[in-house]
Design a protein that fits this description.
The protein contains ten helices and no strands. By secondary structure, it is mainly alpha-helical.
Length: about 260
């Protein structure tokens, strides 16, 4: 398969078709319910945060203006200033809120629905390959250590990237590319969160998963970007989690599994 973002995008949309298969539909209900409940709650909380931030802005702005030692004729009418600033504030708060919703939804949603997503990915892989998925056996204490360390390892990895991006964002000239780097980071995070599901069914740990995915970096980024964009489409975004799991499994089977298994 070609190593292009378009290929990754097509894998996501294949997820819609896969969910309609009889042997897969029964595994979709629980991830779908978790997706709907969590996304609805986060959108509501995001709206509440907008109200709080905007109220704080409108209350504090007069104090900021009074502290400026400027001639009165240079200070615009406060009401006009609020009207002008509200439009910019709407855009800023909406962007920040959407990013936060995405990050929380992706990480927390996959953490809660992890076992059900694994079953969904298994059903999709069996449908695509006709073979059973055999996970490597391990002692019970190894399993407990694994599920305890996994979220910590992921957060450490994400925070390390966030710190580097924050540093880049404050360096003059270089910070012009910071928005693009943040977009790539979020896209990569999306891809990791969903492609890890079918790969963990085969016993791969996070460092190994990241290494394998870098071999098809453009495909993976195309998949992640498409998933991110669909998250912002009303109503359709309620289907993102199961569709992305199915699409990621299809991508794993087609792109990476043949060269490993």
């Amino acid at each position: 398969m070609s190593n292009s973002p378009l290929t990754g995008s097509l894998y996501f949309f294949k997820g819609f078709t896969l969910l309609t298969k009889p042997n897969i539909r029964q595994r979709v209900l629980i991830p779908l319910l978790i997706n709907v409940i969590l996304l609805t709650a986060l959108i509501y909380l995001g709206w509440l945060q907008y109200e709080i931030l905007f109220d704080l802005f409108t209350k504090q702005l007069p104090n900021w203006l009074s502290e400026l030692d400027l001639p009165k004729n240079l200070l615009p009418d406060f009401k006009e200033l609020i009207v002008a600033a509200e439009g910019f504030l709407w855009i800023f708060i909406i962007i920040i809120t959407l990013i936060l919703i995405f990050l929380i939804f992706t990480i927390v949603g996959n953490l809660i629905s992890g076992p059900f997503n694994a079953l969904l990915a298994e059903a999709v892989e069996i449908h695509l390959t006709g073979k059973s998925v055999h996970s490597p056996s391990q002692p019970w204490y190894g399993f407990l250590i694994g599920i305890s360390w996994k979220p910590i390892e992921k957060l450490l990895y994400y925070f390390s990237l966030i710190i580097m991006l924050l540093i880049v964002s404050v360096i003059p000239i270089i910070n012009y590319i910071a928005p693009l780097l943040w977009l790539l980071f979020i896209t990569w995070l999306v891809s990791l969160e969903y492609t890890e599901v079918p790969m963990e069914n085969h016993g791969y740990n996070m460092p190994t998963i990241r290494y394998i995915l870098t071999k098809k970096r453009m495909v993976v980024l195309g998949f992640g970007l498409t998933t991110l964009l669909v998250m912002f489409i009303p109503l359709v975004n309620f289907l993102v989690m199961p569709v992305a799991v199915a699409g990621a499994t299809c991508m794993w089977v087609s792109e990476s599994a043949p060269s490993i298994i």
